[in-house]
Amino acid sequence: YLGVMFSITGYFKVAQQTLSGQGSKYGVQLQNSLYKCSNVSVKVQLDLFDNLLLPLLSFRAEVWGFHSTE
Length: 70
Prior knowledge:
By secondary structure, this protein is an all-alpha fold. 59% of the residues lie in helices and 0% in strands. It has helices at 13-36, 42-58. Helix 1 runs antiparallel to helix 2.
């Protein structure tokens, strides 16, 4: 689910942490899967990243803002 998590304060810190956590989780899963299949070409690896991870990482990126999280 790629919905946006809102907090009662109106800040998007929760949304930022949730979306970045999902991106990290799926990035590790993709990396582990590609490690097990060592015969996958670099082009295919980049295509997988572009088609699977990039949409997740850029979803609602405009709410991330310019502040850091813990």
